[in-house]
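Hi F.,

I've been meaning to write this up properly since the lab meeting, where we talked about keeping a consistent format for the predictions we share between groups. The idea is simple: the sequence comes first, exactly as it goes in, then the structure tokens exactly as they come out, then a line or two of notes. No screenshots and no reformatting. I'm using this chain as the first example so we have something concrete to point to.
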Amino acid sequence: MLLLILCSFVLGTNGGVSVAGTLSSALGGTIVGLAYFVVVLLCGSESAIGVSSPPQWPLLIVTTLTGLLGSLIDSIIGATLQYSGEYRLLNILFSAVVYK
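Output, unedited:
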């Protein structure tokens, strides 16, 4: 679906949003947050710093939402500022940022 006009699109269209891509972005954010959480559990002992830290698990929610939001922002930028063209002589597709 094209995010700005809410219609279906051809695969590879700038600004297109798919369920698989959106879920992958959220999963990517979750993996980053999980990696952080594991490192904090392994390396962040309270005896080393002398202070107890607040719970870190809420960051999993934040990183998941951030991955999702980043994907949607990328789609909006792709739909509004990115141009795709074709160089027919060599049969090459290309993208360029268009400044308005």
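Notes:
The chain has a mean pLDDT of 77.
Helices lie at 19-43, 46-49, 58-81.

If this format works for you, I'll send the rest the same way.

G.
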